[in-house]
Sequence to fold (148 residues):
Amino acid sequence: MANNRPIIILIADDDAEDRMLVKEALEESRLTNQMQFVENGEELMDYLHNRGKYSDKKKYPVPGLILLDLNMPKKDGREALKEIKSEDHLRLIPVVVLTTSKAEEDILRTYDLGVSSFITKPVTFVALVDVMKTLSKYWFEIVELPKL
Fold:
């Protein structure tokens, strides 16, 4: 790891099967980082602000990377991304969109809002494992992340 501290991965996705597949793909890619999961944009913001059931900062520390689905209930990923990037204490957290959307509008808008990367979810588990291997190698071995 580039900065010698465990990096928490916060995964925001409303689809239980997708959450399980991403978790298994990360584990399959030999990633040992702790993973936390939220199911919508409101839970994501509660986690990041340590509100409600996420109030324990030891149990829910600041993530070093957020994997964000765009299409979620209550508050979608676009709205959550806009909030994250507008707040001084959150804007440095790298956010990677991991979504089924291939819409050019979503790609342009999320980059405009400050997303670090935009990845369309692969359709097969094998392809998802490959993406997670590449993602984890890039974010946890190559890139220098800010200390948050």
Remarks:
- The first strand starts at residue 9 and ends at 12.
- The chain has five helices and five strands.
- The CA atoms of residues 111 and 117 lie 8 Å apart.
- The chain has one domain: 9-140.
